[in-house]
Structures are given as C-alpha cells and as structure tokens.
Amino acid sequence: MTFADLGLSDELMRAVDEVGYSEPTPIQKQAIPSVLMGRDLIGIAQTGTGKTAAFVLPMIDILGSGRSRARMPRSLILEPTRELAAQVAENFEQYGKYHKLSMALLIGGVSMGDQVKALEKGVDVLIATPGRLMDLFQRGNILLTGCALLVIDEADRMLDMGFIPDIEDICAKLPKTRQTLLFSATMPAPIKKLADKFLTDPKSIEVARPASSNRLIEQALVPVTSRTKKATLIDMLGAPDVKTAIVFSNRKSTVRDLTTSLKRARFAAGQIQGDMEQAERIRELDRFKSGEVTVLVASDVAARGLDVKAVSHVFNYDVPWHPDDYIHRIGRTGRAGATGKAFTLATPDDDEAVANIEKLTGQKIPRIGKAAPAAPAAAEDKPAPASCAGQPKAAAKPAPEKSKADARPKAERAPPPAPRPHKPEPRRDDRNDGPDEGWNGPVPDFLGISLGG
Ligand code: AMP
Fold first, then answer.
1. Ligand 1 site, CB within 6 A
2. Which residue, 124, 186, 319, 429, has most beta carbons within 10 Å?
3. What is the CATH number of domain 217-374+434-446?
4. CATH architecture of the domain with range 3-206
C-alpha cells in the first residue's frame, strides 16, 4: 500500500513526498482511511511508529474544507508536554505547507498574549497542553463549541501526569457530535474508561504491542554499583560507535551534575530537564539536532517529545522508576527504520525496577560485562579504565566550551524515589502548565502562523 492508496489530497501527497516518506507506516495505513471517513479511533502505538502523521495527515484534509471563526478553533490536539506539542506543531507546518490552515500552539512558558492574539484571529488547529488550555478557557478566550475534531495524544502519559480530570472537563465542553481520536502506548484501565465515555464506536488499531520494544533497538543491561556508575557511563560514551547519545536520569539534579561531569570529561554535552525555561530547552535541543551537542542528558520530561533522527545510543543512567518510561526512553533511538543501541546501567538496588521492565516488555534484557571496579570518590569524574561493555575507549569528543563547576549543594538533591503510587499523582516537575512564566526567547515561528499561501 502506498500513500496514494490512502485517499489523501494531491497537495498533501506533494508535502509528504517532499518530507521524504516513501511508504506509509503500519499505523498510517490503518488509521488514515478510517479518520478520513470520520470514524472515532483508538490507536495503541508508541512514539516512533509514525503515529503523529497518522492523525495529522487526515486532519489536514478534513480541515481543508471549511473556514475558521474567531476564538472558535475547529480542531484540538491535546499533548502532555510542551515538547510534544511543539513537535506536532512542526509536523503540521511541514505536512500542511500546501494548505491554507491556521494553527495556534497553547503551551506553558509562552506568553499568553501571543496565544490569545492567535486565537482571536481564528484557528483551524489548536495544539495544547491541558493545563494551559483550561486557563485560557476559564478566562473566556476560547470557545470549544466549534471543535468537531479532537485528538488526545499520549493518553497514558496524560494519566501519569495527572491530566485526566482536565481532559474530562475539556471533552465535556466540546460538541457531542465530533470525531475523537485517542492515542496511547498502553491501555491502562483509566484510559479505557475515558475512551468508553468519550468515544463513539471507535475503530481500534494496535500496531505494536504496548510492551513490545522495537526490534531495531539492541538492548543491554550493564551491572554497576553506585560508585562505578559515572565512570562506566563515561567509558561507554567514548566507544567509537557512539555518534549521538541521549543519557536519561530520573532526577533533575542528576541531569545537572552529570552534564557538568561529562563536560569535564570533554564530551560535547548538553542537558534538558524540567527546571529549564522553555526557550533554553529549545536552544539545547537545537544544539543537539545540529550536532554541536553530541551527548544530551535528559530527564523524562524530554523523553516523549524528542524527535531527533539518528540518535545512535540511549543510556539509562538510572533505571526508570516507571517501566513505561523505559519503552519511551529507548524509543528515542531506532527511529523510523534506523538501528540503535540502548544500555541501562543497573545497580543491585535496581533489581525490582528491572524486573518490572522485563515483565512489561516480556523480554529479558541481556546482561553484559561485570560491575566496574569501585572508583575512588575523588576520581569520580575521570573515565574508568577499559570498558565493562567490552567497548574500547575512543578519543573523547571535545566539549564546545569549558564548563563551570556546579556549585549546587548536595542537600538540594531529590530524596530517593517513592514507589509508584497506586493512584498516580501529577508529576509537578513535568507539568507544563503552571502559572505563566513568560517567554524569555523569541516566539516560535509556528505560533499562530498561517500555513501555506
Ligand atoms: P512518531 O511516531 O509520530 O513520533 O514518528 C516517528 C518518526 O517517523 C518521525 O521522525 C517521523 O518524521 C517519521 N515518519 C513518520 N511517518 C513516516 C513514514 N511514512 N516514513 C518514514 N518516516 C516516517
């Protein structure tokens, strides 16, 4: 099946062709014709499967007929994080370049004034995080009664972040006769309930079992101790096949510390974590995309929205507390047909978390190497001798600039994680939608722009 068989318009086919997609992915093959027919849809798919285009492409053609009215968006895409929302907006811009559709992005960290201005003009597509959308709704800046097409993306992530009550509120404000598309990597009971309540006779599509991780990703578990962990990572990052890497950590303070250590070890390291201003995060991502930064240290806030092609390696510096996060993290490599490697550094304390991941994926992660010998505390930042991964240490990549020592007191570090609560709490550090923090950088191009001519 080709894109031509899916019933998309010529303008859209032209844009898709220019992006360089030759064949639709399985989720696109199954979803696009149904969405074009106006059906509700449940898509169980991970990021990396092409699911964004599976809803954005048909939406563009559906919205192609009809006109927007002031303050009444015609369609709404809900995303859990700013990064993901911005990513979807970028895709809309790419695929919709030959359509005259307008779009607004409503995310925390961007000045409300610009967002309100875009809405006043009338938008065809509103891409929003739930908290910011509710804020603007309560201020009377948006009417959702004209919104006949709703996409709830990454629903399981929304659940983890405590957004489900907001989503229920939003759904109740939309017209009853509308088309609703829901995407989620997994289908826990509260999401199933949400779907039962707000979707009508949906078509269900599952492209990869929620727990099955991508076959193109070679995975391994590297036994370490808390003292040898950093040296092991530094050693592994130096392997010649590590071209670009994302290193995940569970804590923002570790992301900061590790970035400093990697810079000291002369890696071109950068960071992205929840404490950074949005403008700063975008700048750092751009530096990673351009190759100026080759090792990006990230907290989970970055895991879902990141779409960087050719990430050769993912390292889990910490075993994620939530097994779902493991799948999302390693999904940053092995994207769109490329192969990738994902290494997880695990201490004996992580046994339970590892067992939970293996239970979810149904696969045992192969163990490699032995725990690295304990490094002396003072030499913490120096690479350890020969790798526990059996990979020779390559010449370290030069850092673009000398880093300043992190003066942050140790006391600031987060306490050890609590076990996953039975009833998920909002993860405040990941929520995007606090009070308007103001935007310190330029307003992104895609904010309130008109697409096409
Ligand atoms: P997603 O699952 O939406 O995060 O998409 C993952 C990646 O696949 C993105 O980099 C897309 O640009 C890419 N992609 C989407 N559709 C296709 C396609 N039909 N062929 C090749 N790459 C695609």
1. 21, 23-25, 28, 47-53, 307, 309, 335-336
2. 124
3. 3.40.50.300
4. 3-Layer(aba) Sandwich (3.40)
